[in-house]
Amino acid sequence: MSAYIKVPQDIEKRSFEIIGEELGEKREKFDEKTLPIVKRVIHTTADFEYADLIEFQNGAVDSAMEALKSGCKIYCDTNMIVNGLSKLVLGKFKSSAYCLVSDEQVVKEAKKREVTRSIVGMEKAGKDRDTKIFLIGNAPTALYQLKEMIERGEIEKPALVVGVPVGFVGAAESKEAFKELGLPYITINGRKGGSTVAVSILHGILYQMYKREGF
């Protein structure tokens, strides 16, 4: 029987050691706050191309940390993101995550207007002034809607927007369009991304602020 690592902490530690080794000189592109995020995205995806695709804008990490330290709500465009985030760690900072795409009223309104639930959910989330961070991993329409609301002055400047919708229709374009706002923003350029990537980005920030036991 072959030997293999069984302790979770040891598996994660060794994984990050391998990622650091294989990143090589690309590590120099990132600073002490952004490199852990890049490593966590690669850890989640096993895809080193993310080191070339990820982009940090306008003090995104520091802005997110300040919001989290003060306690805030985080809007996610999928329930997968909500379920993937560490409730324990968010709770340490009196922060919480939520999603409205399955909300009964959102579903009804989206059907009536013949638009995506992501659009209606974002409209409602944008009215909540306690929501300072937005994680968008699936729907380009959510990112476009957030951009339009900010441009119309319907929503205060977010502390962080993670715009990483994945796909072939509007994903890359929505990410580029959002850059025009000059806000604290983390994105994955091109088609790649997804809910798990959005989770890993926020965890990459949170785990710099909170040291988990055993890690």
What is the CA–CA distance across the termini?
Answer: 28 Å
Name the CATH superfamily classification of one domain: Cobalamin biosynthesis CobH/CbiC, precorrin-8X methylmutase
The strand count comes to: 6
Which CATH first-tier class of one domain would you pick? Alpha Beta
Q: Structural class, from helix and strand content?
A: alpha/beta
What composes the largest sheet?
6 strands, mixed
Radius of gyration, whole Å:
17 Å
Write the CATH architecture name of one domain. Answer: 3-Layer(aba) Sandwich
Family: Belongs to the CobH/CbiC family.
Enzyme class: isomerase
Keywords: Cobalamin biosynthesis, Isomerase
Protein name: Cobalt-precorrin-8X methylmutase
What would your notes on this structure say?
Helices cover 51% and strands 12% of the residues. It is built from 11 helices and 6 strands. Strands 1-6-5-4-2-3 form a 6-stranded mixed β-sheet, sandwiched between helices. With 215 residues, the chain is an alpha/beta fold. The chain has a domain at 52-194: 3-Layer(aba) Sandwich (Rossmann fold). The protein starts with 7 loop residues before the first helix and ends in a 6-residue tail after the last helix.
Key attributes of the depicted protein:
215 residues, alpha/beta, six-stranded mixed beta sheet, 12% strand, cobalamin biosynthesis
Short recap of the structure:
With 215 residues, this protein is α/β, with parallel strands linked by helices. It is 51% helix and 12% strand.
